[in-house]
């Protein structure tokens, strides 16, 4: 898409303009654009007012359709934003635990992925896209066992359990784990546990063929980069040779080159080969892939 005129966003607050520019340039999906506008403007009414003041065009109309389509779901996502529960926390893991316990009680889909905008259907589409990439990278097989760090409400367990030997989901939030167990109650090969968020030492002696961390590392990095490093250091002892560690988003600091350098350093230090180093592999979601393989 061509770059919009400099005065195209005059009707919107300054905080909204970067998201709109990225969206109109084709860099982010409509769902991610609405998410970023919610975070920038603080609520759905402000987002609707901003969009309604822009010149009529199909791309802007597509955003308005999302805002108008599922008001109840979007209200839940808005509540998560308005209560300050949609950003990574610095400091203690206990703050992250409290954040997600509160968020999942308000809007489970928005709590696990704000870009879902509270919609179960949108979250399902995003999850299906992740599973499709795992398939493409040949990481899903019926004889494999997986560990999912930061499993949230169990969306990946629901999608992957029928295609794996077993999958274990862990999360620092008891509220998330309770919701995951409820949603996956019929899956005998999916188990869940509350973790302390400091590392994977609790699984010492167990083996997993695949370890996943979907939007979990940004919170670990924000809490303490050493905590993120500990997870990578522990993971190498849980994987067999050529076992895979998939990290989708390493941080939210907005510096992909810095994230790539950090992953390169940690991979070399702990014995991982990098198969994908910060690649953009999704259309609905703006997450980036770090695919590590135990040497």
How would you describe this structure to a colleague?
There is one protein chain. It contains 13 helices and seven strands. The protein is α/β, with parallel strands linked by helices. It has a domain at 127-294: Vaccinia Virus protein VP39 (Rossmann fold), CATH 3.40.50.150. A seven-stranded mixed β-sheet has the order 3-2-1-4-5-7-6, sandwiched between helices. Helix 2 (30-41) packs across helix 4 and helix 6 (93-106) packs across helix 10. The chain is globular and about 60 Å long. The model has no long low-confidence stretch (mean pLDDT 94).
CATH fold node name of the domain at 127-294: Rossmann fold
| CATH class (first level) name of the domain at 127-294 | Alpha Beta
Biggest sheet, spatial arrangement of strands: 3-2-1-4-5-7-6
Q: How does CATH name the architecture of the domain at 127-294?
A: 3-Layer(aba) Sandwich
- Give the number of helices: 13
Mean pLDDT: 94
Structural class: alpha/beta
Write down the overall geometry: globular
> What share of the residues does DSSP label as strand, in percent?
5-15%
Q: Major sheet: size, sense and barrel closure?
A: 7 strands, mixed
Helix content class: 40-55%
Radius of gyration: 19 Å
Distance between the termini: 42 Å
Number of strands: 7
Q: What order do the SSEs take from the amino end to the carboxyl end, as H and E?
A: HHHHHHHHEHEHEEHHEHEE
Any idea what the CATH superfamily of the domain at 127-294 is called?
Answer: Vaccinia Virus protein VP39
Unreliable spans = none
